[in-house]
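User: Can you recover a sequence for this backbone? Please restate the input before giving your answer.

Assistant: Of course. Working from this structure:
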């Protein structure tokens, strides 16, 4: 038998069709009116069905359907109108796929793999549905409709039996009306639960990124905050004394190019205030966190306070103004060195352009960043700045301007050395 070649596909299909016809004849044959059929239409179906619930299998047989173990102990024949006993239901189930005997499979829908993969759940849901506390679990219409196209051979031969037709909405209801879902889900770290839609992480509705940067530990957060407090305080004190020195003799010190140092220190003094504002009581959380304890991203937003935006303006505007003043300083030095030994005033009439450039360019950049809402909070630095989330904006609005400033400033410094030599 083992050396005999396998059957030709033609006979297999023919035998499958013959088997299907035989099954349909059995299914469509008149059957005595069973108690199970009346249960579905009786107004007292729930009470009557309680008595109809029976064990899924005798004690000596495993509770299984088509080889799969049933996750429940009791079932009913209320949906299978062609069976009066469980033994008869098992017999009808095996008609769809007879077990292997003698090494040769008898014909059945198992030989149609795509049909068999979708019809098994439907057959088990009809012949051995879950029955508990007088209520039977109905198969969904989606499960029923999924068998129509792959199992079209059944429909072509004799059609589906009445109790397997999907048009019966009472037997095959919409599954969304019958299933109950557990909605008490939890967001997995570093996401936290939030109802604010603007805080939702992409493709994860109801969850947003936690306020504390998950890439750093609490100890690392504390260390960084200590460094910021230390260097920020030193910067503020140094710039403050520089400003005080200029103001003490403002009449004599208000001359170019020396007064440019005053404006540079003024910019960094204001910037240090923006960095140190986070050390006020509860200020850091107010600056970098949203009200739902998620990270501030894409500020400004209409639902949050302006503390994040305010700190960004102070830090960013003062930084850009300070570095542009550096270019003005190098240009003023270059022009002054060229005029050494002459009576001309090289900076006369040009100082107004210094102010126009150094105050207007940072203003335009700041407004552009706010317009595209690319201000993000960071728990490590304790401030809001551009490009924490999108590094391209950090490169465009911070690195690029500073790079241009260094190139231009370096050019004037090199020219000064050439002039001096």
């Amino acid at each position: 038998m083992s050396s005999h070649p396998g059957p030709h596909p033609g006979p297999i299909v023919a035998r499958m069709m013959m088997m299907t016809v035989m099954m349909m004849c059995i299914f469509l044959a008149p059957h005595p009116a069973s108690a199970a059929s009346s249960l579905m239409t009786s107004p007292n179906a729930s009470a009557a069905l309680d008595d109809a619930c029976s064990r899924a299998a005798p004690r000596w047989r495993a509770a299984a359907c088509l080889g799969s173990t049933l996750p429940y102990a009791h079932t009913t024949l209320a949906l299978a109108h062609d069976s009066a006993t469980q033994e008869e239901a098992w017999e009808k189930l095996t008609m769809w796929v007879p077990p292997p005997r003698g090494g040769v499979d008898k014909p059945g829908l198992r030989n149609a793999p795509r049909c068999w993969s979708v019809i098994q759940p439907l057959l088990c849901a009809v012949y051995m549905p879950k029955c508990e506390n007088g209520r039977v679990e109905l198969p969904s219409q989606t499960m029923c409709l999924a068998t129509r196209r792959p199992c079209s051979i059944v429909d072509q031969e004799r059609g589906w039996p009445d109790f397997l037709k999907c048009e019966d909405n009472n037997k095959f209801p919409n599954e969304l009306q019958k299933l109950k879902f557990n909605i008490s889900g939890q967001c997995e770290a570093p996401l936290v639960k939030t109802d604010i839609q603007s805080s939702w992480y992409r493709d994860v509705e109801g969850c947003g990124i936690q306020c504390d940067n998950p890439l750093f530990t609490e100890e690392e957060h504390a260390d960084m905050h200590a460094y910021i407090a230390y260097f920020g305080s030193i910067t503020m004190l140094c710039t403050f004394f520089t400003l005080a020195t200029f103001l003490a003799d403002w009449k004599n010190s208000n001359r170019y190019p020396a007064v440019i140092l005053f404006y540079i220190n003024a910019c960094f003094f204001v910037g240090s205030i923006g960095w140190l504002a986070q050390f006020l009581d509860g200020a850091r959380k107010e600056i970098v966190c949203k009200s739902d304890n998620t990270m501030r991203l894409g500020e400004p937003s209409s639902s949050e306070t302006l503390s994040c935006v305010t700190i960004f303006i102070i830090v960013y505007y003062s930084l850009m103004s300070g570095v542009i003043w550096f270019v003005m300083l190098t240009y003023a030095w270059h022009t002054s060195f060229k005029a050494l030994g002459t009576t001309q005033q090289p900076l006369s009439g040009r100082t107004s352009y210094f102010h126009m450039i150094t105050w207007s360019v940072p203003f335009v950049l700041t407004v552009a960043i706010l317009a595209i809402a690319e201000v993000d909070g960071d728990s490590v630095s304790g401030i809001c700045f551009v490009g924490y989330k999108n590094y391209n904006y950090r490169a465009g609005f911070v690195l690029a301007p500073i790079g241009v400033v260094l190139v231009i400033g370096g050019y004037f410094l090199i020219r000064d050395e050439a002039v001096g030599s």
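That completes the design. The two ends are 106 Å apart (CA to CA).
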